[in-house]
Amino acid sequence: MKKVFKLFYTDLFFTNRLFTGLGSCVVLFLFAFFFPWLGIIPQLAFFTLLLLVIADVVMLYQVSKGIFAKRHAPERLSNSDDNELGIYLENWYPFNINVGIIDEIPFQFQKRDIWFKTTLKPQQRKLINYILRPTRRGEYEFGAIRVYVMSALGLIRRRYNFSQGETLAVYPSFLQMRKYELMAISNNLSEIGIKKIRRLGHSLEFEQVKNYVPGDDYRTINWKATARQGNLMTNSYTDEKSQHVYCVIDKSRAMKMPFEGLTLLDYAINASLVLSNIALLKEDKAGLITVAEKIGAVVAADRRPTQINKILEVLYKEKTRYLETNMELLYATIRNVIKQRSLVVFFTNYESLSALERQLPFLKRIAKFHLLLVVFFENTELKKVSEQPAADVEGIYIQTIAKKFEYDKKLIVKELAKYNIQSILTTPQNLTINTINRYLELKARQKI
């Protein structure tokens, strides 16, 4: 009995309407002291309010379970994307109710205003959807769902607690990967900024010898086969396949820099996932290497159907390290792991020309054996500072330093080009599009 009573008063909450009614009663009692003609009106008002409160309690507590609530969430969340979740409600009361819902979302979101209001008719079911955008990979713990029910009287609220604690993993942006995948399958990549690049010359991969049909290129006629068959025969070519594409991700402290809630490492991880998936759709082989002061993960290039899931699982666990990149170890790993000429996309960040010069000898060695594409980031905050008008001498000094660092980035591109090393200097938000564009360009020009 004591436990039941405790549950009763811990789940009972007074509303503003009740406090307004009590305040009105207090005012009537005060006025009755100065105006005797009010008589028993204050007492009648108070007892009427008391009866209404009792009636409201009876209405809300006449059934043990008047409402049902359940959280609808995906098996995993996609980092940096809008993930849709829902709260399913069922009203088991025989009358209309007003409902307020609190969903205890993970602390990582730093939101304390997840409060939903709705109304439900008897036996009505409803699904309330809302959006969460995580900015870090890892495990997110959801708590209980708190539902506050109020009748038409609106004097008290009854709270229902639905213990639905669950842990959801936030993976690299697989929603973005699927979007690009659908665009690639339907040949609509141009809608999201992917350029159409004209293929130069013939593909180098021979497919078959077939009968000549009007419209075939005369240069592809196979004269030996024509002599044997007595009919015109032509060589048929197809796009080159099974080329190796490796994404190499720098996990050192240079990639910890934040931008719009995400670190540069997370941007590189998301872009690597999309690029690997596009490469697999183009029937190339995708691989992955992560590196900091030591080698992290190594996924050999392959094009099996399970390859993208394997890469996704590896990327999910990667974290920023706080030491310098061991380029000598990276070079040795690439030489041991990658046995044929491949496209190596190196995601890193250089803030100064001296930072590049420390790594340049090893980049030149890698470029001797593979087509190396170095992807690094523009410092958008410095760019904003350099574009702002200076108000004083200190402002001129800060603007000059910002422009110096911005100019260093352009010098890095030129320095890499001197040694036939491809490069992309991009803002974080355009990283994925620019990387895919360059991959398709290199493939069309048969540089891999």
Automatic annotation (TrEMBL):
Q: Does the keyword Transmembrane helix apply?
A: yes
Domain of life, per UniProt, equals Bacteria
* Spans through the membrane: 12-34, 40-61
Domain DUF58: from-to ranges: 208-350
Q: Which stretch is the leader sequence?
A: none
Cross-referenced InterPro entries: DUF58
User: Which Pfam families did the record assign?
Assistant: DUF58
Keyword terms, alphabetized = Membrane, Transmembrane, Transmembrane helix
What is the name of this protein? DUF58 domain-containing protein
Name the species this protein comes from: Mucilaginibacter xinganensis
Q: What is the lineage of its organism?
A: Bacteria, Pseudomonadati, Bacteroidota, Sphingobacteriia, Sphingobacteriales
